[in-house]
Amino acid sequence: MRILAAGDHFVRPDLLRAALREELGTDQEITELTLPWPHEPFGPVGDVHEASGTEEELVEALDGAEICVTQMAPFTEKVFTACPRLRMVAVSRGGPVNVDLAAATRHGVAVSFAPGRNASAAAEFAVGLMLAAMRRITTADAELKRGRWRGDFYAYDEGGIELDGATVGLVGYGAIGRIVARVLRAFGSHVLVADPYTDPTAARADGVEPVGLDELLRRSSVVSLHARLTPETHHLIDAAKLELLPEGAVLVNSARGGLLDYAPLPGLLKSGRLGALALDVYDIEPPPADWPLHDAPNVVTAPHLAGATRQTAHRAAAITAAEAGRFVRGEKLAHPANPEVQEAARS
After folding, report:
1. Among all residues, which ones are annotated catalytic?
2. What was the pLDDT predicted at 6?
3. % helix / strand / coil in the chain, to the nearest 5?
4. Span 299-344, pLDDT tens digits
5. CA 33 – CA 158 distance, rounded (Å)
6. What gap in Å lies between CA 181 and CA 127, rounded to an integer?
7. Are residues 285 and 328 in the same domain?
8. Are residues 86 and 192 in the same domain?
9. Between the chain's N and C termini, which has fewer beta carbons within 10 Å?
10. How many domains is the chain built from?
11. Domain residues for 95?
């Protein structure tokens, strides 16, 4: 069986190959393709989003392949039509956003994904963003490097807030949210969670308090977003929701830019209504040079780095290789995106 390891400069082809060899041995023919991300930004390719490379180079690399393991390759209707031997695509991401699932299903191609691959990395980064925003860490660093000793930050009105004793609200309580909650509880925070898919009894057993979104926003001095982006959650936190936050609250978004309406944020920061903002994701990536938040006070920014750890890359390769192994052995996939394909093949 021929397998294409379509890696990039994060989940590299050699990592995918090594994971496949460990899972399947040396009997399979494995070829490699290196896509340009992250040295070149991902974006829409054909009819899919957040992909890297071109349809043409992927079709050429897939020649004769039955399985592809990848993070960013653009699996579009055009690609599936041009590759009739393809039977399975294992995507090493939390969701197969670079795959046209309807087209895959029509062509009888099973698709899997890799939930939780970056949960630890993203959770640690979210807590880091909280601390940076709450304690002015990045601002103080930048000022000191410019030769300014900001002793005035010790003044009461300029002082930060602590996680110990703070009420922190988590919007979304999946794999990442649960790790964040565990870390926050170790700091001494009281953690609220708003997630319609979470069992309240299980949440309470974790030591967190499940509440509705509006109550969470009203009670939390720090709010961190951890929901998945769907049509229902687009602009989940809009201008009206932002007005529910207590005066001086800190807002963190390291999940998806589309969860948050960015338009009201500069005014809320300049008025002091919002105390600080920490972002790793944006409504436009990268933000343009005239982005209003560039000039707003008390903003911490990072270029979509929450999942960028070496452990995440190795974990992603291992999860996708395991799915490829299940498929080769005729076993049910652990994380199918279109389970009906395997079910049809068995019937």
Report:
1. 256, 285, 304
2. 98
3. 40, 20, 45
4. 999 999 999 999 999 999 999 999 999 999 999 999 999 999 999 8
5. 52
6. 10
7. no
8. no
9. C
10. 2
11. 2-117+309-346
